[in-house]
Amino acid sequence: METPTSVEIRGEHACFGGRQGFYSHQAKSTGTKMNFSVYLPPQATQGKVPAVYYLAGLTCTEETFMIKAGAQRLAAEAGLALVTCDTSPRGLNLPGDSDAWDFGVGAGFYLDATQAPWAGHYCMGSYVNLELPTLIEANFPVLDDRRGIFGHSMGGHGALVTALRHPQRWQSVSAFAPISNPVAVPWGQKAFGNYLGADQERWKDYDA
Questions:
Q1: Fewest beta carbons less than 10 Å away: which of 12, 18, 175, 204?
Q2: Cα dihedral angle (127, 133, 134, 136), rounded to 10 degrees?
Q3: pLDDT tens-digit readout, 163-180
């Protein structure tokens, strides 16, 4: 397997004949260091493999799915890479970013914020759709034309919206208990009002 060159290796472990790794890099989308993880199945030693990207829910990190789901065994059997990322930028210390569990840190909602002070940093939409796949495909033995995306809760929202907005980039999408109509629930209203502003017509761009 190739050693990634543009990322910092935080830890790598043998796992079901493949390799589970935890990494970080300096992200342009968020202007912060972002953590992510990649599971490469044993088939990746022979050539590039398809990748499935998982988006986690509120309060989670890039580690949550890889630690709790037990998906590596199935990915090894299917010859799939698994990729996860954090749920928001961290370390910015913006006003109010850590006051609530459902907004700010750990709750980026996979959109591109347009309102101060979130704009320019809370750009998880661009990060998930463009920057992260580009980084993965440049540094790991992963195909650039066979991408899938899925997620849970807030991450299910992110997966649906990302794939529906950019169908040419994603070959599959699925979601577990997604926040599929965020404009109609308090979590979504809180996040969208702060990240996107008071104009609810603009919220519809991120409502599956």
A1: 204
A2: 120
A3: 999 999 999 999 999 999
Three-state secondary-structure class, residue 140: coil
Q: What is the DSSP letter of 184?
A: G
Q: Give the span between the Cα atoms of 77 and 176, in whole angstroms.
A: 22
Q: Given this model, what pLDDT does residue 5 score? A: 54
SS3 124: helix
- φ, ψ of residue 175 to 5 degrees: the values are -150, 145
Rounded distance between C-alpha atoms, residue 60 and residue 35, angstroms: 12
| Mean pLDDT to the nearest integer, 144-172 | 97
Q: How far apart are CA 185 and CA 171, in angstroms?
A: 29
Digit-coded pLDDT (tens) for 29-64 = 999 999 999 999 999 999 999 999 999 999 999 999
The pLDDT of residue 20 is 98
Beta pairing, strands 18-26 & 8-15: antiparallel
As a whole number of angstroms, the distance between CA 154 and CA 166 comes to 18
Q: Could you give the residue ranges of the DSSP H alpha helices within the chain?
A: 64-68, 72-78, 124-126, 132-139, 154-165, 186-196, 200-203
pTM: 0.95
